[in-house]
Design a protein that fits this description.
There is one protein chain. The chain starts with a strand and ends with a helix. It has a single domain, classed as ApbE-like domains (T-fold, Roll), CATH 3.10.520. The protein has seven helices and 14 strands. The mean pLDDT is about 95. It has a five-stranded antiparallel beta sheet with strand order 1-5-6-9-14, with helices on one face. A three-stranded antiparallel beta sheet has the order 2-4-3, covered by helices on one side. Helix 1 packs antiparallel against helix 5, helix 2 packs across helix 7 and helix 5 packs antiparallel against helix 6. The chain is about 35% helix and about 25% strand. Bound molecules: adenosine monophosphate (AMP) and magnesium ion. Adenosine monophosphate binds next to helix 6.
């Protein structure tokens, strides 16, 4: 996933702590091997127009992504891969690449997934870290654990004797337990040309990198939700997405 992941946890002794760290990091390595589009052999990189059997984990992420795409009317779209790839490699966009981006053309059914058009690509950069943090927190197997995958933080039970984990987001110190917070913005990742700042976040509906400066933090029940919704709001700048998302959920 191209990021550093920090694990903080409470255990009764050093051996228990070590075992918990090992389980958490093993889970992250496993999720990374499934979801990373930087790895040619990952499950996500093997998607094509021919249906392939996918893991329960990838299915969970793709189904969730679809719900967020529907609620955001395409502001969030994990099929943005052809555009993010061009942007990373050439700092350019093409109409051909934009024509391949459409969440409706990614099918997930009965444990299989496939694209409607050749040349499509999935990029889970906006959702995978939150999901990996959820999974690592669960895999650690201790009550009190915090996983921080750069801007995506997942907290379980509070540290002993505390109300919650103190986490900084949007210039505030939050006290969280059994919750996640994700921040999406450009303070670390951007590109400047002719005095203009281009985000690593793309508006798939326009086929261009965002140039507005905005940083959004979302607190949610889990990392999957916080991560996806933070990116969505970074793109759409419109909180009514949250209402539509909640309505779809009910
Ligand atoms: P995040 O830091 O969670 O906001 O995710 C940003 C990453 O998500 C980018 O670096 C791209 O890999 C990917 N991405 C960019 N634009 C979008 C978009 N509109 N919808 C979904 N993923 C995107
Ligand atoms: Mg995100």
């Amino acid at each position: 996933m191209g990021t550093l992941v920090g694990v903080t946890l409470y255990a009764r002794n050093a051996a228990e702590a070590r075992a918990a760290f090992e389980r958490a990091f093993a889970r992250i390595a496993y999720i990374d091997a499934l979801l990373s589009d930087y790895r040619a052999d990952s499950e996500v990189s093997r998607l094509s127009t021919t249906p392939i059997t996918i893991s329960r984990e990838l299915e969970t992420v793709l189904r969730f992504a679809r719900r967020v795409s529907e609620a955001s009317q395409g502001a969030f779209d994990v099929t943005v891969g052809p555009l993010t790839r061009l942007w990373r490699e050439k700092r350019a966009f093409t109409d051909d690449a934009k024509a391949l981006v459409n969440w409706r053309d990614l099918h997930v059914e009965n444990g299989k997934a496939w694209f409607a058009k050749p040349g499509m690509r999935v990029d889970l950069g906006a959702i995978g870290k939150g999901f990996a943090a959820d999974e690592a927190a669960r895999a650690a197997g201790v009550a009190s654990v915090l996983i921080a995958a750069s801007g995506d933080i997942v907290c379980r039970e509070a540290p002993p004797g505390e109300k919650g984990w103190r986490v900084e987001a949007a210039g505030k110190v939050l006290t969280l337990r059994h919750a996640a917070v994700s921040t999406s913005g450009d303070s670390r990742q951007f590109f400047e040309r002719d005095g203009k700042r281009y985000s690593h976040i793309i508006d798939p509906r326009v086929g261009a990198a965002m140039t507005t400066e905005l940083e959004v933090s979302v607190v949610a029940r889990n990392g999957l939700t916080a991560d996806a919704l933070a990116t969505t709001l970074r793109v759409s700048g419109d909180a009514s997405v949250l209402k539509r998302f909640a309505a779809r959920r009910a």
